[in-house]
Every structure is written in C-alpha cells, then in structure tokens.
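I would like you to sit down with the pair of lines that follows and say whether tokens and residues agree.
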Amino acid sequence: MSESSDYSSARGLVVLGLATMLGLLFIGCSTEPREIILASTTSTEDSGLFERLLPAFREAHPGYRVRVIAVGSGEALRLAARGDADAVLAHSPGAEEEFMAAGHGESRQPVMYNDFVIVGPPAGSARHCALESAAAALACIAADSATFISRGDDSGTHARERRLWDLAGIEADGEWYLEAGQGMGAVLMMASEMDAYTLTDRGTYLSLRERLHLSVLVEGDPILRNQYSVIVVRDAAELEGARTFADWITSEPAQSLIGAFGTERFGRRLFTPNAGQTSQELKIEN
C-alpha cells in the first residue's frame, strides 16, 4: 500500500472520529427535557399561580418540564390512579387520604392553603344571608330559592360545598340549584352573568374579580380553610421527576414565590405557604 493511501486512510479515520464526536455532542445538546405530568386543579391554573412557579422550576431543574392537566381534584386523583399522571397537586383532603390508603401515592406533603368564600351579586336577593357561618348562609340562600351554581364536578371545591350542605341539613335540589360541571373560572363567570351565588376559592375569585359582578358574602368561617397538598404517584412513569418537583415546591425558594404571589396585583397573597406542617398543625377539614 502506498504512503498516500496510508495517509488517506488515516485522514478518513480522523474525519469519521470527528463526525462521531460532533454527532454525539449534537445529540447531547438537543436532548429534550423529561416531562413530568402534573394533575392539578382548575383553581391553581385559573389563579395564574403556575405561570409564576413553572418557569422557576424549569430554571432550577432544566432537565425537566412540567405539563399541567387542570381538572377537579377528584378527576386529578383518578388520572393518577390510572397511571396517567406522575404527581398531583390537589385540595380535597378526604379524597387524597383515600388515594394514599389505596396505595396509589408514594408521599403526600402540604404545600399551601387559602380559603373558600361564598360570593354573589352585591344587590342580590340573598344579600341578607351574609352570616358568619357558611352552612347557615347556604341554608338562608336555599330558603330564599336564590340561584346557586355548583361546580358539580367532584372537585375539592365541590366536595367542600357538599360538606357545607350536609352541615346545613339541606338537600340541595330544585330549579334554584344548578350543577355546571365546569371549572372554577367558568362557574364564577356564569354566576356573575346569572346574578347567582357560588362557593369559590379566594385566589380564583381575586384573579377574576375585575371581570365579575360578584362580591364576597361569607368569609372567615374555619371550615372554609382550603389546604393544598402535593402527591408523588407511586407507579409514576417519571418517578424521579415527580419526586424532584415535590421536593422543589415544598422548598424555601418555591414557598417564598407562593407567599409573594398576588401581593403586587392584589395587595395580598393568594396562597399561604405551609410546607413542613404536621397533620396535627394543619387541622384539615375533609
């Protein structure tokens, strides 16, 4: 073999090696982040909280991205139980406890809370029902046959509403009681258009308040506390990512973001961070 042939072969090997290295480098640089599917509530979506949190999570953990499926808490837990979500952020304590007892969850941690409020038209027929007890206020609304719109979607809000009707001793039924089967934002818009009453989380109400003809009728009753928790799904397809997200959202940087959310626009926080609290400290209403 001639010297020129040896040179050509050697040069070919070098070129091939460089091409391989560049190819591997390109593949490494173009690798897509691993996707975490988070089943969460329409209230966290409608309030705008994820618009603040998810970019910060991506910055802290660029190897992951979060895709949110915003549904009611009940549906979020069912999605997770079927293996269609890696993590859950919900606010339906009773349903969450059943989920964990069934072995679907690896861990459950408190993240934050806000509160529910009963809202209605400022000059509505049931404005005199502005009582300190939420259950008594609902009983008053029912007695007046004032239009009440329920989420009707097995969400955490719907579960709390059913609990309040039970405490009031009322079977919510009749032409005055409408089940929307919609998320919180849609129900608030319906209530505003129909001069009706509804139960809502405060965060979604405040985020939409400028577009609503609704005011707060009842607030401050301890039963209206609204606790959110993050659950890592035991058989998650992206288990490490779910663990990473749960660890991050309960960490000091994320908790600070949650605590500050809403203060610039509304002059008050929409959620109070409380990661690390024990079940005894939480005093959660199911």
